[in-house]
Fold this sequence. Notes:
- The structure is a homodimer of 458-residue chains.
- Helix content of chain A is 34%, strand content 19%.
- With 458 residues, chain A is of the alpha+beta class.
- Chain A folds into four domains: 2-96, Uridine Diphospho-n-acetylenolpyruvylglucosamine Reductase, domain 2 (2-Layer Sandwich), CATH 3.30.43; 99-219, Uridine Diphospho-n-acetylenolpyruvylglucosamine Reductase, domain 3, CATH 3.30.465.10; 224-325, Alpha-Beta Plaits (2-Layer Sandwich); 336-418, Alpha-Beta Plaits (2-Layer Sandwich), CATH 3.30.70.
- In chain A, strands 12, 13, 14, 15, 16, 17, 18 and 19 form an eight-stranded antiparallel beta sheet that branches. A five-stranded antiparallel beta sheet of chain A has the order 5-6-10-8-9. A four-stranded mixed beta sheet of chain A has the order 1-2-4-3, covered by helices on one side.
- Chain A is globular and about 70 Å long.
- In chain A, 59% of the residues are buried.
- Chains A and B meet through strand 9, helix 7, strand 11, helix 10 and helix 15 of A and strand 9, helix 7, strand 11, helix 10 and helix 15 of B.
- Bound molecules: flavin-adenine dinucleotide (FAD) (2 copies).
- The site of one flavin-adenine dinucleotide has 38 residues of chain A, from strand 3, helix 5 and strand 10.
Amino acid sequence: MSDAYSDLVETLRRELPEDSIVLSDSVLRENSRDFGQISGEPVMPLAVVFPTEVGHVQAVMRVATANRIPVISRGAGTGVSGGVHVQGDAVILNLSKMDKIIEIRPHDEVAIVEPGVINHHLNTAVAQFGLMYAPDPASYKMSTIGGNIATNAGGLRCAKYGVTRESVLSLDVVLADGRLIRVGKNTFKGVAGYDLAALFTGSEGTLGVVVRAFVRLRYLPVDERDLSMVFPSLEAAVEGVQQIAKSRIQPAILELIDYSTICVLDQQYSTDYASLGGAMLLVRLDGYGAEREEAAVRDAFMSSDVQLSKSGDAAATRLIEMRRTSRGDTKDDAYRTGEDVAIPKSRMVEYVHRLQDLAREENVNMRMISHAGDGNLHPTFFVDPTEGEQLLARLHRAVEGSVKEALALGGTITGEHGVGLIKKDWLAWEQSDEVLQLQHQIKALLDPLNILNPGKAI
Amino acid sequence: MSDAYSDLVETLRRELPEDSIVLSDSVLRENSRDFGQISGEPVMPLAVVFPTEVGHVQAVMRVATANRIPVISRGAGTGVSGGVHVQGDAVILNLSKMDKIIEIRPHDEVAIVEPGVINHHLNTAVAQFGLMYAPDPASYKMSTIGGNIATNAGGLRCAKYGVTRESVLSLDVVLADGRLIRVGKNTFKGVAGYDLAALFTGSEGTLGVVVRAFVRLRYLPVDERDLSMVFPSLEAAVEGVQQIAKSRIQPAILELIDYSTICVLDQQYSTDYASLGGAMLLVRLDGYGAEREEAAVRDAFMSSDVQLSKSGDAAATRLIEMRRTSRGDTKDDAYRTGEDVAIPKSRMVEYVHRLQDLAREENVNMRMISHAGDGNLHPTFFVDPTEGEQLLARLHRAVEGSVKEALALGGTITGEHGVGLIKKDWLAWEQSDEVLQLQHQIKALLDPLNILNPGKAI
Ligand SMILES: Cc1cc2nc3c(=O)[nH]c(=O)nc-3n(C[C@H](O)[C@H](O)[C@H](O)COP(=O)(O)OP(=O)(O)OC[C@H]3O[C@@H](n4cnc5c(N)ncnc54)[C@H](O)[C@@H]3O)c2cc1C
Ligand SMILES: Cc1cc2nc3c(=O)[nH]c(=O)nc-3n(C[C@H](O)[C@H](O)[C@H](O)COP(=O)(O)OP(=O)(O)OC[C@H]3O[C@@H](n4cnc5c(N)ncnc54)[C@H](O)[C@@H]3O)c2cc1C
């Protein structure tokens, strides 16, 4: 490889500005992986390229096609499924320097952005117009719009405002061979031809490189009411989710936190919620209906043993903001795995019981947070590295068991994080051979040499 | 063809129940077209098949593949783009008898339906659980869920609740060769693999036959407030749309009706709105925020010369319900064409002026209704068959001009009706060669013999 390798770098240097190609150890290392679990030593990429314009991306893809070298698009690397993990020879196309907000059109309620714009930056920029970019993965202060689109990211307020797909109008995409196409439409509605914008959304860098996005904005709510609700048990909290649904309230945010996670938060923030009960719901009601919805929630739980925060309680808001910027965990490692199943809403109590059984059987620890309004659960399994026999085998069985149980209840292996590398073996548990094959055929159509993030997502 | 034809019918008879194959003239005629314009005499299909179960659909597709005979899936035939128009030898697969609501799961807020279920029937069935199926094309009392999915139908309350795509969770699809696959997921969120459910949604029967849909339901609003607003001019009404947006109100329904359409409604319903002003907005505010939103609307228009209906005015509700079940027109014919562009919201006044200019230049009549909350406009151009020279050429130029002007403003040729047959030549005005080609490649992948509604949609 080493001759071919210096050829490749030589060619890239001819096509791109000097400083856009970085080969330093530290940058290679930083760009070798995401927040997802990794087994063994990370593999270093051949080079990291930092394009600053669309033409650079096209040049990289042309060179990659000519040399049959895999290219891994990378936003901020906050993915948790190993979507940007390097596996063999590969160039990292790091889009973080294409970070311009090209235009905000407040009266059209849209924005046009480069892929490397940080979610939070876009939200800050549009807030002055009374607008927001709704999808808000808990990584929103770090992750990029391009990465959010490539994973079809969810987030907290997606319960009410929809996932990333619902905010993507059109995309400029560089194809494997370097051609630039525009898919989708620049209007709120549009049904001309097939929904290619949805096909690229969530395709995890395997079909093309998103170089520009035309996104829909929503109205910043005129009112927000935050509530924390402490329940005696996890079961009671899950019932609470159903109770809110029965009142026909669609919260902007509806998060469930289990006892073990409450303890983590208490430690991090010197609070003492753990002494109050066994599980919490964090609820944000927004818009013109927020006040009436708050009253309806209070009504619904009046005669129950729920401890509801007072109206306007700053602590509830602080808790929600805490949750909005954390998964309850940092990087997964060999001893800790965070999952991301989604299941039908009515099966949550049942599912949590199965998780508890699994953890007990395998003698591992489990805690859980959940975007409960959408039935999207994030159980985390972990073991103490110093404790017991066959640690990793037990952890592995618990994790796989949790995914199988979700599927048995009609769920999916990934609600919002994407398949990446880590969930690839599980895809066949969920989808039929025909459907798997069809996806490989679509991939082959768009990327016949299999150089766009090969081995990921499908 | 006649030998091959009797062979085909013979084979179908062997595979399907006797009464599912209909060859009578009247049924062939009824099934030869939709509500869209047709030039010349309609072409009769070879046969109309009424499957009552998935196996029948698979059998038809196997026979069609073996005989290389095109199959046109048909719901209720309320399409307005000629999506089901017969052009040559073809079998109509009429799904209207697969009309069972298979299951409603109120606690999961989902329903499972056969494709022939009428939109309105599903809504009636789920209402008893306090739920609704949100997408409501103005044809909702006639059109089928399968047809709605195949066209990614919009509707009135899509401004707030999203188009059909946003309510489709998973689909069972019979492929060209008769294989049955399931795409999508049965949960609210899910990102496993590519978004194939979105690919089939809006594909107008060209990629597969939808035989079962797993759809998301929404909460029936606890409150609804209907307003009619009469403005002195169309321009003022469009400004009114912006004014409502500025108040950060997201109405469930926000329809604009021009003077000419008001006159039609006045005639149909013996009312006299035309004497009050030049254009109307019909507004439905719903949910917990409805009351406060109504107050905000009244505030925003307090010092203007808008005539706002009184709170709880039954006439406003009647107007909205009138609009919810009509396009303002019936079947298009040679002398009348209804269009369906969508444009950026801020360009509406500009666009309407261009439409008026066009109508004047070509000396044709124009009227317009609009799902104004989404920037989706339905201008209708029409001429009196007895009036003037070169009628059809003038009409044609006005229609094509209106579409080109929409594209020039950053719009799309079809907001919700689909490309079908009628808008096919225009697709190349909107999309690049690469994008057109990519869609044909996807089509060829799924339907290599080109027997699924050939010549439509792309
Ligand atoms: C603390 C924390 C909280 C999180 N919370 C959530 C959450 O609530 N919801 C959620 O959905 N996720 C969450 N995540 C996961 C992650 O943040 C999201 O998947 C995010 O969308 C990734 O964005 P990124 O810019 O970091 O992309 P990366 O991790 O760099 O890449 C993710 C995938 O997208 C591809 N990609 C990136 N940019 C492009 C591009 N321009 N064109 C084509 N492909 C591209 C990559 O190849 C890779 O497959 C969380 C992660 C962390 C660490
Ligand atoms: C009065 C009136 C008002 C209307 N208002 C609206 C509106 O507000 N919004 C809007 O979007 N549309 C509207 N339309 C257009 C039309 O009603 C919609 O496109 C509707 O979704 C068509 O449903 P259908 O069952 O009649 O389908 P059809 O007209 O029978 O078929 C439409 C397309 O879908 C395909 N198809 C049908 N069933 C299936 C299936 N099971 N599998 C695969 N392909 C299939 C057909 O091949 C065809 O391409 C209106 C039409 C009328 C007449």
